[in-house]
User: Which sequence fits this backbone?
């Protein structure tokens, strides 16, 4: 496993979830990595332990599931493809074929719908059929389906990229033309504009 290509978890406090993350887990998934000023970026999936915490916080796994580096790598790989699809939608460009294929493969890897089972005491019920060794497959399938729903639904028109460079997170525009993923990024943009006005500099 080549870990050199993985951005290290620097310990930087992550930005809060972007607008829209409460409706789309795939949006928060895409934003588990971020570039920030002065090299203070972070990657919440950089290690199996932090990837496990993210899955658990989003109710995509159970506490008894143990993640290994291979699982975290698979999460980072799918995240890269989801980010590529989001970026293509925001930019109005054709998405990479590899990213479409990766999301479709994740979608079809396991059944995401609860299956019908029979309980001798309670009768028929719906259960999630994902044994422990396929828990990551199940989580990735849910995230891929969520991303597909976002990209094909009405909210795709308000998907945007954060306008506070170098931040590269995505968000849903909920207030007019706002293109900032967080108050921190918005404050940075406003401070830069105020400085430019004072000094006569241009953006």
Assistant:
């Amino acid at each position: 496993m080549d870990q050199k290509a993985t951005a290290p978890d620097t310990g930087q406090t992550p930005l809060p979830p972007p607008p829209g993350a409460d409706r789309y887990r795939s949006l928060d998934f895409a934003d588990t990595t971020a570039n920030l000023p002065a090299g203070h970026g972070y990657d919440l999936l950089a290690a199996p332990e932090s990837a496990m915490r993210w899955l658990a916080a989003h109710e995509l796994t159970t506490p008894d599931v143990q993640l290994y580096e291979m699982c975290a790598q698979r999460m980072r790989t799918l995240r890269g493809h989801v980010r590529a699809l989001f970026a293509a939608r925001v930019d109005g460009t054709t998405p990479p074929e590899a990213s479409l294929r990766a999301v479709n493969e994740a979608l079809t890897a396991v059944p995401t719908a609860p299956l019908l089972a029979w309980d001798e005491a309670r009768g028929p019920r719906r259960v999630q059929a994902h044994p422990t060794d396929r828990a990551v497959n199940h989580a990735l399938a849910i995230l891929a389906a969520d991303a597909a729903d976002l990209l094909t639904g009405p909210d795709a028109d308000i998907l945007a990229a954060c306008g506070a460079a170098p931040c590269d997170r995505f968000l849903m525009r909920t207030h007019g033309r706002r293109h900032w993923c967080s108050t921190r990024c918005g404050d940075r943009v406003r401070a830069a504009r105020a400085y430019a006005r004072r000094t006569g500099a241009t953006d």
Notes: The domain at 25-198 is CATH 1.10.3300.10 (Jann2411-like fold). The first strand starts at residue 33 and ends at 34. The radius of gyration is 19 Å. The beta strands are 33-34, 42-43, 115-119, 123-127, 159-161, 170-172.
